[in-house]
Amino acid sequence: MVMQYANHGNLRQFLNGEFNSLNWYNKFKILCQIAHGLGNIHKEGLIHQDFHSGNILSHDNFKGFDDFKYFISDLGLSKSANEKSEKNKKNVYEVLPYVAPKVLRGKIYTQESDVYNNFGTITYEIFTGLSPYYDMLHEEFLVIKICHQVLDLKSLN
User: Where is the Protein kinase domain positioned along the sequence (predicted)?
Assistant: First the structure.
């Protein structure tokens, strides 16, 4: 597989360096490109299953933020949305802060998991500049917090 070189690394790296330079228009434009890419994955009948800011690559042609392109990468854990196998439902392979609560509760991954939790969490990250649950260790207490849907939005003010 050959992919375009991402000269700005992944979205998390980009936000670490450029968040304060982004206006709301830039943030919405990033989200639109990511939503379009995720929509294409879902139209192909796939579930990403490992969708987070580290798997969104950014590239530009040195013309400013309006020229940036965002690509979803790392489809290694993706599966068919029609696959009903529950053999892996007890195994969680994602980056913990991005895992859907229902997956942590033992349900299977779905396209809705990609959208509801993963895209929603990436939206939070783009709007705030913060990694989800940045102030917590990624262990059992974070699992409890995710399952109770507590994501602090105060930083949006």
Answer: 1-157
Give CA angle at 152 (147, 157), nearest 5°. 155
Residue 36 confidence (pLDDT): 95
Question: In the 8-state DSSP scheme, what is residue 154?
Answer: G
* Low pLDDT (below 70) residues in the chain: 1-3, 61-66, 84-94, 138, 149-157
- CATH code of the domain in which 123 resides: 1.10.510.10
Provide CB contacts within 8 A for 75, sequence distance 6+.
Answer: 41, 46, 48
Does the model's pTM come out above 0.70?
yes
Outline where DSSP puts E strands in the chain: 46-47, 56-59, 69-72, 79-80
pLDDT at residue number 61: 66
49 located within any domain: yes
Does some domain include residue 100?
yes
Question: Is 5 inside a domain boundary?
Answer: no
Query: Which residue in 45, 54, 33 sits closest to 110, CA to CA?
Result: 45
What sign does the dihedral 63-5-75-90 (CA atoms) show? negative
Selection from 123, 144, 142 nearest residue 133 by Cα: 142
| Domains in the chain, number | 1
